[in-house]
Design brief:
The protein is of the alpha+beta class. It is built from 7 helices and 17 strands. The strands form 4 sheets. Strands 6, 7, 8, 9, 10, 11 and 17 form a 7-stranded mixed beta sheet that branches. A hairpin with a 2-residue loop joins strand 9 and strand 10. Helix 1 crosses helix 3. The protein is globular and about 85 Å long.
Length: 365
């Protein structure tokens, strides 16, 4: 019976494996659901460099016109308004990883195909890599290198000086750090007051709406929505915080159930929505090591164009490289998978555009 087999680095094998890898890796990412080519997407996919050479995509933001204009027969000539356009650059670079078999005898002992196992292992690695980069970027985690942040150096949250441009808040809603944020005594009342609560989400949302430029909401099913990412420890605080006089997330959800709502997230263990903010949980939310206390986490409220994602030149759908090489006289097979890509939090005029970081006390159970 005739069979078809592709040898090491056969052109068809390279094309098949590289296409399969990028498709499966993106499907496995947590953040792929938030990607889209529209400027109304949370993560805007920029594909300009799929069609041309270069190492960056320049992204522009046109500010709203503010002049009053003229009425009646007033002279408009000479009173025109200049357009104000700010720019940000998304950098892309090559990023590679590889796996290598121990040898033919090791492969003989198991029922695994080295190519399949290599693809699955690299798929998981790439999915984790993209997710980690997204959260390091949007939370402004400057303690990591660009290798762990989508080929772009992460930038700290901007505008902590006044509420009109603050893009980071601390615990109970203040826009500047306090001694309680660095307190070593986790039992103090001031630290307990820095837990994640519905009030923190309210403050973040209010600041997002009055920021300059205003953070734009996402448009979902014809409605304006925001997305809030929280660490599991922050979610636990949100659900269980029972400080005197505090209204908890659980109280709000329970009231909706008692009001007759039957598709409430309490029925399926989901987080649900609060005040137009869709709540999501991710263990990849980094801590706030800059505070000197790693029990603080960087939740983040996101609107449209919070980040941008791009890849390099697309050769017939092959965004990823796939390279196989034999070592030790053909006894060991190595497989490399790489991609030219980048992911970045967007800033215009040196201001965060679509993110509001919420640093809260988030102790382990």
């Amino acid at each position: 019976m005739a069979t078809t087999a592709y040898g090491v680095n056969h052109p068809m094998a390279v094309k098949l494996w590289s296409k399969a890898l990028v498709t499966e890796a993106l499907k496995e990412t947590y953040v792929s659901r938030f990607m889209g080519k529209s400027n109304d997407s949370l993560i805007v996919v920029k594909d300009e460099l799929n069609k041309s050479k270069g190492d960056r995509v320049r992204i522009g933001l046109r500010m709203q016109l503010t002049a009053e204009g003229v009425i009646g027969d007033g002279t408009l000539e000479g009173s025109e308004e200049a357009l104000t356009i700010y720019q940000d650059d998304l950098l892309i670079d090559q990023h590679r990883h590889a796996v290598r078999s121990a040898g033919k005898m090791t492969e003989q002992r198991v029922h695994h195909d080295i190519r399949d196992e290599a693809k699955d292992g690299l798929k998981d690695w790439w999915a984790n890599n993209i997710d980690r980069a997204f959260f390091n970027q949007v939370t402004g985690n400057t303690s990591v290198s660009q290798t762990l942040a989508g080929m772009n150096l992460p930038l700290a949250p901007t505008g902590t000086a006044s509420p009109s441009n603050a893009h980071i808040i601390y615990g109970s809603g203040t826009t500047s750090t306090t001694t309680s944020l660095t307190a070593s005594s986790t039992a103090s009342a001031s630290v307990r007051g820095l837990l994640m609560t519905p009030g923190v989400i309210d403050v973040a949302l209010n600041l997002a709406k009055i920021a300059t430029p205003t953070m734009r909401p996402l448009r979902i099913n014809g409605q304006d929505k925001w997305v809030m990412f929280m660490h599991p420890n922050q979610v636990r605080s949100l659900r269980t915080n029972a400080a005197a006089g505090a209204v908890t997330w659980y109280d709000l959800m329970r009231a909706r159930v008692e009001g007759g709502e039957r598709d409430n997230p309490l029925y399926n263990g989901g987080l649900g929505e609060y005040n137009g903010v869709i709540l999501h949980e991710s263990s990849r939310i980094p801590d706030y090591a800059a505070s000197g206390n790693t029990t603080f986490r960087r939740g983040v409220l996101c609107g449209a164009q919070a980040a941008a994602f791009g890849t390099g030149r697309d050769h017939g759908g092959e965004k990823m490289s796939w390279f196989e090489e034999l070592f030790d006289y053909g006894n060991q097979l190595g497989v490399e998978a790489g991609m030219i890509w980048g992911l970045k939090k967007l800033q215009f005029n040196a201001q965060d555009f679509g993110t509001m970081v919420c640093v809260t006390y988030a102790p382990n159970p």
